[in-house]
Request: fold
Amino acid sequence: MSKSIPVGSFQGMKSLNKSTILNVVRQYGPISRARIAKLTKLTPPTVTNLVSELIESKLVIEGTLGESTGGRKPILLRINSSAFYVIGVYAGAKRLKAVTANLDGNIIGEFETRYAANQTREQFLQTLEKAVQNVMDNTHQQKESFLGIGVGMHGLVDPEQGLSLFAPHLNLRDLPIKSFLENRFQLPVEVENDVRAQALGESWFGKGVGIQNFICVHIGTGVGAGIIIDNKLYRGSSFTAGEIGHTTIDSNGPKCSCGNYGCLETLVGGAALARRAQQAIRLGKESILEEWVQGDLDEISAEMLCKAAQNGDFVAAEVLGDTGRYLGIGLANLINILNPALIILSGGVSRAEHYLLNPLIDTLEKRALTKPANTVKIAISELGKNSIPIGAFTLVLYKLFTPTGLGESISV
Reply:
């Protein structure tokens, strides 16, 4: 039986009722046909017919027998997670990473590469193509085994057109990611802002499972947020919701890449941490960092700061503490406006949680309204360095498993 999936929106496989059944099997499987009918409120004959089509397409398989309620034991259904693969790509500020995963979200293969200096649009698209091709080749030789490609792109994105409107750290505009990849690989492609994609991944595989209102905040070279409100991914009217990195924290602060001054990104992004450490050392403070870079202070990085702090370095610990306080101001603003139950932190800076969290929480207690500040939880993502690639392939899984668009409910 062929496993071919048509390009586009999974025509012939995806329909409202099929997607509803698929999502129930994903969330509650192994599950009987009778319980599917009860949960979906579809008639038993409809469930039987649609399940037969899903089994024929190899998305669902029959497994163990369930408990009998008086008659024959029901045959339980589950997702055939190893039959197909999805691809997730993180196109970040400095590097690009692609992964493949099965339908349970388990990562099978990875490939990471850095961009060339002064990357052109043609070079970027070639780098993107190379990464996708690499993980496909190292996962499965048959293209029909792949259901689609998801791309989490830093900067401003139009997810409906699949365009990167502006990638600030690459200084590139209007990149036709969706059309380029669909033409090259003949697979459906979903494109989303990187941290919004991550928020979706957290809602399926991470700390956000079962949480109606939460925010992901990713702190790396740039700073962004992905917002889930009432189980819905919030994009905003022009797809720019979550640009917390460009909210003003200090109007007299450093100039930002966006042209404003004192944006959160200029105070907690990786470059900001390195800059503050350099300034401290130039003012005469002693630090192991100076020895590590053999006096070339321009070589100091945010990653080094985390390691130096762990080695008892005062300068590094002080810079990270200040970072926690600045981040606390930005998060207090989010809490006061959106009142989330949970904020999930990710990215390189978040790995210094021992030095960040106490000053961050102290700042929240002072600046956020008392009741929401007392109820919100601050957590570190457990998806690790693959949090955005996981979010990217979740875009594809979401398209397959749910009957509605990304602006609709993400729960059954």
